[in-house]
Amino acid sequence: MKILNRAIEVKAMIKSGDRSFQPFKGKSMAMVFAKPSMRTRVSFETGFFLLGGHAVYLGPDDIQMGKREETRDVARVLSGYNDIIMARVFAHQDILDLAKYAPVPVINGLTDYNHPCQIMADALTMIEHIGRIENTKVVYVGDGNNIVHSWLLLAAVIPFHFVCACPKGFEPDAKTVEIARSAGSKIEITNDPKEAVKGADVVYTDVWASMGQKEEAEYRKQVFQGFMVDEALMEMAGPKAFLMHCLPAERGVEVTDGAIEAPNSIVFPQAENRMHAQNAIMLHVLGA
Ligand code: CP
Ligand code: NVA
Fold first, then answer.
1. CA dihedral for 116, 117, 120, 122, sign (positive or negative)
2. Are 210 and 145 a contacting pair, CB within 8 Å?
3. How confident is the model at residue 77 (pLDDT cuts 50, 70, 90)?
4. Quick check: CB of 37 below 6 Å from ligand 1?
5. Do 227 and 142 touch, CB atoms closer than 8 A?
6. Which one of the ligands is nearest to 273 CA?
7. Going from the N-terminus, what domains does the chain have, and what CATH number goes with each?
8. Average pLDDT of span 240-248
9. 117 lines ligand 1 (CB under 6 A)
10. Distances (CA, A) of 212 to 88, 97, 166, 215
11. Consecutive H or E run containing 187
12. pTM to 2 decimals?
């Protein structure tokens, strides 16, 4: 909550046009991407710049972590030039190794296991639109993927009701479910999206085939029949339900065009909040 409150404060300053707060002046950030990105790249780069810093983008062909060079070497070399490292990788172990070997702070910009910066932005968006996270009902419909793991890890810190409606065989990691449950949040895993969404404050979805799984896309389209978030499902959720999606969306696959364009869709304020949430995360890890 401390980081989210800071995000609200710094967002207000940036939105007002005030650029006098330059805590990252003279600082540099390395951004390592093993996968594609729009939001994560632009929100980190622009956010760091708006607060005075300079960000260096390293795309999938630049470092080739683990292939051209060992992760532990990348960690120490980049730390020699930069005050902070942000990385988007495939294996979660890579981000753990970067953090272990880098003397500077390392921020997770998505792994196959989780996407914490996304969920911080989502939490900020819920506070702005619903007023709270505690005691809300968030229903995720789709693949039990990295986004779901981050929702569960949020539920391990803030108590709320989280439901994951996914096809059999696509459930989230059982250990992560247990972490959230044992912290006191109500967690349900179901195969029935229609029943699940009833009374939801948020209906959330994400692509059925994540980065690294695109060759399974056609197969998944068959298996995930009935899990598309459309206007009818949003109607079943009830009048207070907002639609959220981390984006990029495949309209006509996991979500309809109509659902994304509806008045209760908050996917674009949600995307903007990536930058504001991450600014607060960077301020936190740099002690600024
Ligand atoms: N939501 C998200 O992380 O988007 P990008 O893949 O474009 O960064
Ligand atoms: N689950 C998606 C999230 C994209 C932001 C992926 O990993 O591709």
1. negative
2. yes
3. very high
4. yes
5. yes
6. 1
7. 1-113+274-286 (3.40.50.1370), 116-270 (3.40.50.1370)
8. 98
9. no
10. 12, 20, 19, 8
11. strand 186-190
12. 0.97
